[in-house]
Amino acid sequence: MHLAYPAVLAVLLFCTGLYGVLARRNAILVLMSVELMLNAVNLNLVAFDVWLRDALHAGQALTLFTIAIAAAEIGIGLAIVLMVHRNRGTSDIDKLRDNAETHDAETAGHDGTPGAGRTAGSGATAGPDEKAEAAA
Amino acid sequence: MTLAAGHGFLSPTGVEIAFLLVGIVTLGAAVITVTTKQLVHAALWLVVALGGLAVEYLLLTAEFIAWVQVLIYVGSVVVLLLFGLMLTRAPIGRSPDADSGNRPAALAVAVAAAAALIWVVIDAFRATWIDLDGPAQGSTKVSGAILFRHWVLPFEALSVLLLAALVGAIVLSRRDREREGGN
Fold it and tell me: Of A110 and B122, which is predicted with more confidence?
């Protein structure tokens, strides 16, 4: 089999996952796209392992490890998404903007007044101060 | 690792044709997964994509990984994703806000990355063929032997990592009544 077949398929799957990660709004759909990217890497690992006829079969061993780590990642990721959904009522990653750079935070950074409570986010207590120090 | 002797670009073998067809199905399912507006359908199309990848592993003679793929991805990861969708009260029908506003930028980045990577891959492996003859390189016997002969320490470390991830997921997802009541 020509090596280009699995390599090109892996590239296309990876870029499909990349598009999903960048374009999706629901956090669980982003996790699905991450799974697609991980699977593209797995396909590359298996194809190159079979091509090189590695005596240690490092590619297949790494593929098994990647699958196990992906399972762990999806468990932790879903737990985090569920906790965010329970605390804030949404799993929409566009609405989780507590650490976003708002215009108020930038002006606070230019004034050099630490601890100015002029941010819009409810949970952003430490974020603006760090940005103010970084900008000063 | 065989070179170009005895191979032709325009005369694909049966394995290559099968790989190509299954690859088209896999890629189509993946594209539908990232573009569909129905969240549950996205998870179900992900099953098709991951199952197609398992078939690709079989065609590459990696049997054990194919069955592990079916067991773990199709069996547990997709079920976890479906549970996650239901627990976050995902809408069943079409949800118009499944995609964020930066779709054109995401599409541009993905197409640019695909073009660059395909160019590099084709240029690098133009005259490279995988030799699939002989005994299967990923049979369960071979995989077990290499896994427990050469990769035992990473395997055990991975089991500890899985345990830590399980405990972390349980701690993250349980409701903390003691903290609400006591402190």
Answer: B122
